[in-house]
TrEMBL record:
A Gene Ontology molecular function term of the record: microtubule motor activity
GO cellular component: microtubule cytoskeleton
A Pfam family of this chain: Kinesin
Protein name: Kinesin-like protein KIF25
Domain Kinesin motor: 175-574
Xref: PROSITE patterns: KINESIN_MOTOR_2
Residues given in the record as ATP binding sites: 271-278
Family: Belongs to the TRAFAC class myosin-kinesin ATPase superfamily. Kinesin family.
Ranges where the record places region Disordered: 449-470
Keywords in alphabetical order: ATP-binding, Coiled coil, Cytoplasm, Cytoskeleton, Motor protein, Nucleotide-binding
Chief site of localization: cytoplasm
Location(s) in or outside the cell: Cytoplasm, Cytoskeleton
Length: 591
């Protein structure tokens, strides 16, 4: 029993130990929790202590500031307060003024704003009106553009018709036209001759030739002991001494249109020494070599102006379809000299050439130098070279008398393939004319081996490789004839007398040719002189010839002037003869 009592006592005390141990662990855990809380509370306490310290600082600072303010308030004198008060009052007044000023400004602004608004509205209305007007104008402009297009088309049509009419008109007027230019009295007209009395000299310098009107020359012919008689000469156009180079060229220019239409054209100046032939054809010559300058502008004569015009007309054609060649020859003592021939050093010198008649009855100068030129300046440069070689001698009439006939030839050449003529010449008549020219134009002159021809021939797109290109040429011959003076007047002797004799013979051959054409003789004596032989293609047939008679106005040259006017009148007969005999059914062009 004692044993069982001992066992149960041990058991109870074990339980009690375990209970106590559990309690102990619980207490220990509680202690840890409390210690943690305790340390947190310590932290909070430290924080609160910091806050209290800072608050105490701030409170003492505030106290210090408040004390300072109280001291300041106490120390502020009442005078300052009054001043401040007055300033505040002043500021209040300023503010009031500012306010009323601002109100006034605002009213002004409103007023101006209204004005501007009104102006803007008016402007807008105007713009609206202008817009409406603009629209009307635009409609009108559109209508006008359309009308312009129609007019342009009509103009092109009329232009083509005009070309046809132009050539018909020139034909009706005659293929030979004569214009007469009376030059002004010049200083050398008043130079006394040998053994001439003062009175006689005065009489000799008197003006006797006048342009009575645009078509009439009046010459007062007086002989000692006889009453003076007035002689009248009629020409297609007469220029008075005051008429400009411009006016002269204006009547020449239409002929150049014919040139581009496939007609040969010749313009020649005829008249005695000093009557103004060179002046009319070239313009005033200057320098030791008597060349002319293109800078002379309004004073330029027919040759430079015609060249410019031809190149202008060419520029209207398809590019590359035409090209121009120049040759310059002089006929001196009935010999032909090539003034563009060059020696082996390239120096230009005159070389003698011959004129021949081809199988087709055309004139040709074998081996004559032709230079291809691209523009008027190049052309005129070559003409100037030729001029420098031209034979000149002083005569009693004037110091630089030309003793030879100078012939500048501008040849327009083209290579065409059959139907392509129509692309160059829009009107049928010109195309037909060219087709006709094709069949008979200067075959000898077509130097087919000449590089300029073969290299520059244009090849139209539609050309057949088998189609043989054909060469066409038309020529413009510009002729400054030598003076047609009487031997006694020019006062020449010896070699110069021989020259004068040759000049007069060739001029009379020219007159004979014109006479034979007017009488429609079967034989025209072209070959009686080198001059007429050379000009054969430009005188007669359907070629257009313009003779520019140059006349001195004074008594001294009366005989020569009458002789020139007589030549001109005979030349006009050619046309009259043709007109009379014209048969409307037979083409006047056929020779
Ligand atoms: N219409 C004109 N206005 C002003 N001067 C002119 C006129 N015509 C001719 N002259 C002047 O008269 C002079 C002689 O003219 P030009 O040399 O043209 O005569 P020409 O007929 O060619 O003579 P030639 O046959 O002897 O060569 C030149 O000094 C020229 O400038």
């Amino acid at each position: 029993m004692r044993q069982s009592g001992g066992i149960s006592l041990g058991f109870v005390s074990d339980q009690r130990v375990r209970q106590l141990e559990r309690k102990l662990r619980t207490k220990e855990e509680r202690i840890v929790v409390l210690e943690t809380e305790n340390s947190l509370l310590h932290l909070k306490l430290a924080e609160c202590q910091g806050l209290i310290g800072r608050s105490t600082d701030e409170a003492s600072q505030l106290y210090f500031v408040s004390e300072k303010q109280q001291n300041l308030h106490k120390s502020l004198p009442s005078l300052v307060i009054q001043e401040l008060h007055a300033t505040i009052q002043g500021l209040k007044q300023d503010l009031k003024n500012l306010h009323s000023f601002a109100l006034e400004r605002s009213r002004d602004f409103q007023h101006q704003y209204k004005n501007h608004l009104y102006q803007v509205l008016t402007a807008v209305q105007k713009i609206q009106l202008q817009n409406e007007a603009m629209q009307t104008f635009q409609t009108k402009a559109f209508d006008l553009e359309q009308s312009l297009q129609e007019v342009t088309e009509r103009y092109e049509k009329e232009k083509r018709k005009r070309r046809v009419l132009h050539n018909s008109l020139i034909e009706l007027r005659g293929n030979i036209r004569v214009h007469c230019r009376i030059r002004p009295l010049l200083l050398f007209d008043a130079t006394p001759g040998h053994s001439v009395s003062h009175n006689r000299h005065k009489k000799l310098s008197e003006k006797v030739a006048y342009a009575a009107d645009d078509e009439t020359v009046l010459v007062k012919c007086s002989r000692p002991g006889h009453a003076s008689i007035n002689k009248l000469f009629q020409f297609e156009r007469v220029y008075s001494a005051t008429e400009s180079q411009d006016a002269v060229f204006a009547d020449v220019a239409p002929l150049l249109t014919s040139l581009l239409d496939g007609y040969n054209v010749c313009i020649m100046a005829y008249g005695q020494t000093g009557s103004g032939k060179t002046h009319t054809m070239f313009g005033p010559l200057s320098g030791d070599n008597f060349i002319f300058s293109t800078e002379d502008g309004p004073e330029l004569g027919i040759i430079p102006r015609a060249t410019e015009e031809v190149f202008r007309l060419i520029s209207e054609k398809p590019p590359g379809s035409l090209w121009v060649e120049v040759s310059v020859v002089e006929v001196y003592n009935n010999e032909i000299f090539d003034l563009l021939a060059k020696d082996s050093y390239g120096t230009v010198f005159g070389i003698k050439r011959e004129v021949v008649t081809t199988k087709e009855g055309k004139s040709d100068v074998p081996f004559l130098t032709y230079e291809t030129v691209e523009n008027a300046a190049e052309f005129l440069q070559l003409v100037n070279k030729g001029l420098q070689l031209r034979v000149k001698h002083p005569t009693l009439v004037h110091a630089h008398s030309s003793r030879s006939h100078l012939i500048v030839t501008l040849t327009i050449a083209m290579t065409v393939l059959g139907d392509s003529i129509g692309t160059l010449w829009a009107d049928e008549e010109s195309s037909q004319k060219l087709s006709k020219v094709l069949s008979c134009t200067f075959p000898q002159q077509l130097r087919e081996d000449k590089t300029t021809f073969s290299s520059r021939a244009s090849s139209p797109a539609h050309s057949e490789p088998t189609e043989k290109p054909k060469h066409i040429k038309t020529k413009l011959q510009l002729v400054d004839l030598a003076g047609s003076e009487c031997v006694g007047m020019s006062g020449v002797t010896g070699a110069a007398l021989r020259e004068t004799s040759f000049i007069n013979r060739s001029l009379s051959a020219l007159s004979d040719v014109l006479g034979a054409i007017s009488e429609q003789r079967s034989h025209i004596p072209y070959r009686n002189s080198k001059l007429t032989h050379l000009l054969q293609d430009s005188i007669g047939g359907d070629a257009k010839l313009l003779v520019m008679l140059c006349v001195s106005p004074c008594q001294k040259y009366l005989a020569e002037s009458l002789q020139s006017l007589g030549f001109g009148t005979r030349a006009r007969q050619v046309q009259r003869g043709q007109v009379k005999k014209r048969n409307p059914l037979v083409s006047s062009k056929s020779k």
